Amino acid sequence: MAINVKDDRLPERWRLIPPLGLSRWRVVPVLAGVFLLAFLAMAVFAPYIAPHDPLAMETSARLKPPSEIYPLGTDAFGRDIYSRVIFGSRVSLLVGFSVALLASGAGLLIGLVSGYIRVLDGLIMRIMDGMMSIPPILLAVALMALTRASVQNVILAITLAEIPRVSRLVRSVVLTIREQPYIDAARASGSTASRIILRHILPNTLAPLTVQATYICGSAIIVESILSFIGAGTPPIIPSWGNIMADGRTLWQVKPYIVFFPAVFLSLTVLAVNLLGDGLRDALDPRLAKKL
């Protein structure tokens, strides 16, 4: 709808002013996606981008401030922080994407079964409620305490903590869809439960599940950093943003850059993932898409 400007003194081209829509805000998730792809490329090509070996210790270069040789300085062992931050993106993005895929897949299966098969709904949801009663970080710490420190175990621990939230989301969508008239018509025509789920219910769950997966990815990156920071995540020898910050926490007052730079990379990555999720939500939600 245009805004009519009744002032005849204005030029003709100014009398109809188009409304200021929200389409300009679509550029934000696009930029976030580009930024995330750049971080992904940095992680993939880390051996070619990093100027130094992230594990190499140089005693003569301990606690050096940022310089041309060491763009982000060095830590207490003389290791190049810039190289360690670049290689640390591999761990964070691997954990984030892996947890998002695994938790979405498992939560989708559980949610479909629980939402469509009423006999199993009560039992499955009580188990999910019990898991959700424990904060994700505490559940991940407890699971890591029972296993050895490794990237695979971190992924497994965070995945188990995120599955209940995905399953409840999918279940809520299934409960709404299964009462629709076209589902009753499919049952009346003789369609089996598996056919109804695959053809009619599953496609309607993919949009909200995709959006939820982006938030899970961001949450998993944060949880992995927390676990590594407190010593319950990846082994200290593996460069990760949490491990780098843990190495510099005792030197925060004299060498704050050891903690600051990996924290900035962590914050920007999670922000990009969340902004991308917001953009996907706006694009995939028909009600919001009409307003954009």
Report on this model:
By secondary structure, the chain is mainly alpha-helical. It has a single domain, classed as MetI-like (MetI-like fold). The protein contains 11 helices and 2 strands, in the order E-E-H-H-H-H-H-H-H-H-H-H-H. A two-stranded antiparallel sheet has the order 1-2. Helix 3 (81-116) packs parallel to helix 10 (257-284), helix 4 crosses helix 6 (151-177) and helix 9 packs antiparallel against helix 10 (257-284). It starts with a strand and ends with a helix.
Q: What is the typical, i.e. mean, pLDDT?
A: 83
The H-and-E topology, N to C, reads as EEHHHHHHHHHHH
* Spatial order of strands in the largest sheet: 1-2
The CATH architecture classification is Orthogonal Bundle
The number of domains = 1
**CATH homologous superfamily assignment:** MetI-like
Strand content: under 5%
Low-confidence stretches: 1-7, 12-22
- Largest sheet report: 2 strands, antiparallel
CATH topology: MetI-like fold
Separate helix tally: 11
> CATH class, please?
Mainly Alpha
Number of strands: 2
Rg, Cα atoms, Å:
25 Å
The residue fraction in helices comes out at: 55-70%
Descriptive labels:
292 residues, disordered N terminus, mainly alpha, MetI-like fold
Secondary-structure blueprint:
Elements: E1 3-4, E2 16-17, H1 27-44, H2 46-49, H3 81-116, H4 118-132, H5 136-145, H6 151-177, H7 181-188, H8 193-229, H9 241-248, H10 257-284, H11 286-291
Antiparallel strand pairs: 1-2
Helix pairs in contact: 1-3, 1-10, 3-4, 3-6, 3-8, 3-10, 4-6, 5-6, 6-8, 8-9, 8-10, 9-10
